[in-house]
Amino acid sequence: MIDTHNMSPPSSCVFDDSLWPLLLIRLEGPLSPRQFEEMLETRERYLLRGERHLTLVDRVRGTVPPAPQRKLQDDWMARHAALLRERQLGIAYAFDSRFLRWMLNLGFRLKPPPFPYYTASRLEQAAAWAAHRFQEEGMGEAAGRVRQRFALSPGRSP
Predict the structure, then answer these.
(1) Cα 46 versus chain centre, distance
(2) Is 58 helix (H, G, I), strand (E, B) or coil?
(3) Which of 64, 78, 88, 128 could, after both became Cys, cross-link 115 (CB 3.0–4.6 A)?
(4) What superkingdom does the record give (predicted)?
């Protein structure tokens, strides 16, 4: 018999750059400390490519990262602030949890990131914001690919 009381939900972190310069990061469940470190290392490799890009974080089935992981992420952002300012066109987060959106917005109000950001309850809303940001940056082709992938109307913005 399987003890379902002690089973953790499955966790994963998947990077999808098929719509580059949009980087889609899908986070599901609580990440282990090693998974979280690997996520930051992979994120750093994309940042070091030297290309301007936008990140879309799908954490619809995610959880609140524990305090040590939030601290690691804060330290990572502080270390890379200049590169983030130069290369990160923005980050759109999709959280189905109102609490997660509130926590992120509160954290960014206390310590603003060096790039524009947006939080949404659905991935399509976050994608619409990303397409709008690309359009603002004169990257119409990238905006069009995002709209097509997420079945968004051309004029739709969040």
Answers:
(1) 13
(2) strand
(3) 88
(4) Bacteria
